[in-house]
Amino acid sequence: MTKSLEPDAAPSVPGRRAIRAERKTARRSVTVLGVVGELLVTAGVLVMLFIGWQLWWNDMIMANEQSSAASDISQNWIDEARQQSEQDATPDPPTSTGAPDYGEPIVGTAPADGQPFAVLYIPRYGADYTRTVAQGTGHNVLNSTTLGIGHYPETQMPGEVGNFAVAAHRSAYGGGMHLINELQLNDAIFVQTADGYFTYRYRDMEYVPPSRVEVLAPVPNVPGMAPVDRIITLTSCNPLYSTAERIIAYGVFESWQPTSAGAPTELAPIIAAQAQG
Fold this sequence. Notes:
- There is one protein chain.
- The protein has one domain: Sortase, Chain: A, CATH 2.40.260.
- Helices cover 31% and strands 22% of the residues.
- It has 3 helices and 8 strands, in the order H-E-E-H-E-E-E-E-E-E-H.
- The longest helix is centred in the N-terminal third of the chain and has 73 residues.
- The N and C termini lie far apart (116 Å).
């Protein structure tokens, strides 16, 4: 048998058109991946900007709105007391030492959920810090543009024997307790109501899990014990931007005085500046 002298068929070589088509497809794939990557980066930047706006800019705006609303309530109570005093024209009788004796604190009745009933001043937080205290600790109070501090309904009212416990956000929504960790021994905590001013003094602090509801007992951390002292308990989340645990600050009652007597000495300049603002 004679072997064919014809050469074996040469392997097919892609033409120029096929090569160009493959290159275009590759470039198109790279371009699509690049666009997707840019979109993801842009989305990430937008998310970070939103978080920054929520935690800083929006927080600052809400803090100013909450302080302004609280100042208005405070001034309304002061104006009403001044008008009433002018009508009565009966000054408080001095004691033998010359210091007025205002007797037992006037304890108000707890209002309905979401209703404001007190104004909180903590000079350690800054001279412009003032917040409205409303009944309840739901979003309608803590996330409100005009409130910000919530009163645990199961706890006592300002000036009452037992535990007057309140809550506020540590960050965002006005950050009513943003600086709670900076409280120092004997720092003043003022609570103003329509009846007067209640002065508490900061004593100590602790960190607890969210489930530790015993801090709200009439005698904090000792459920079932009958209270004999007047306590204020400030609660917030800890650490910043987290709800992992709770930071708890306790204060003890020092004194009270009616609105007609004017603000306590330490608080008076803040009240005066508030009126001018």
